[in-house]
Amino acid sequence: MIDFHTHILPGIDDGSADVGESEALLSYLAVQGVDTVALTPHFYPQTTELPRFLEEREAAMEKLKPVLKKELPDVIAGAEVYYYQGISRMADLGQLRLGETKLLMIEMPMKAWSEYMVKELLDISCRGSVRLMLAHIDRYLPMQKPGFLEPLLGQGVLVQANADFFLGGFLQTRRALKMLTDGEIHVLGSDCHNTGSRRPHIGQAVDVIAEKLGDDFTKRFLDRGYHWLHKAAPVRKATAEDDSWNT
Predict the structure, then answer these.
(1) What contacts 8, CB < 8 A, 6 or more positions away?
(2) Are the beta carbons of 106 and 93 closer than 8 angstroms?
(3) For residue 242, is pLDDT > 90?
């Protein structure tokens, strides 16, 4: 199982405070069946220069490496890149991809997305140098118009949902499951930040999916996550590859 969205790197954003907390979060995920973790610290292009962010991320990775025991998940460095007007013209955007893949996680503003915002995402996607992945789609749903995902899905943009989306009340869980079966959710992330109020619950979410949609569906869904990472380069070993999925 892959956790596509975490804030486990120590001391780089509002996530893990130190290496000890990072190790604890990775241990929680290992117990839940996660074997690969995307490290996606916040990157705010409007306020932070890219070289500085990359240096800080590398320093955090170096701090984390000594605790990456065999029983813990493999890790891949990426970023959660905050959208801003003009992001489609940002130089070196590809340096924020997840590992050696084309995956680039974008965090959108918490408001209704304008046509211009969607156009910028499509402009980036059409270039082919990156494959966009929208972070925690569940957070934006109350603010968007019906069908807002259609043009993005049609261009191959991937959608990540937070595990907690599947762990809410009846109506929320039903909507999460419907989006999953409709192909509007491609991968899961815990979006974990700490060992207190924002611990990872991705294992519980997968249990709900399996209970409601069956083990076969769940396995296919989780296996496809490895496909998105088939060219990734974790710190210690390559991730699983499944060529049976079409791109």
Answers:
(1) 15, 16, 22, 25, 26, 37, 39, 64, 75, 192
(2) no
(3) no
**99 backbone φψ class: left, alpha, beta (φ>0; ψ -120 to 50):** left
CA distance 170 to 175: 9
pLDDT single digits (tens) 148-195: 999 999 999 999 999 999 999 999 999 999 999 999 999 999 999 999
CA neighbor of 213 nearest in space, from 180, 244, 170 = 180
Tokens for 143? 């603010």
Give the pair of three-digit tokens for residue 23.
Answer: 């190790």
pLDDT of residue 82: 98
Q: Which amino acid is at 85?
A: Q
Q: What's the Cα-to-Cα distance from 44 to each of 49, 95, 111, 148, rounded to whole Å?
A: 9, 14, 17, 24
Asked if residues 10 and 21 have their Cβ atoms less than 8 Å apart, the reply is yes
How far apart are the C-alpha atoms of 224 and 142, rounded to whole Å?
28
Give the ranges where the chain is alpha helix by DSSP (H).
19-31, 50-64, 115-127, 150-154, 170-181, 202-213, 215-228
Token couple for 97: 């991809």
| 83 Rama sector, left if φ>0, alpha if ψ -120 to 50, beta otherwise | beta
With 60 as the cut, is the pLDDT of residue 14 above it?
A: yes
Q: What is the mean pLDDT of the chain?
A: 92
* pTM (two decimals): 0.93
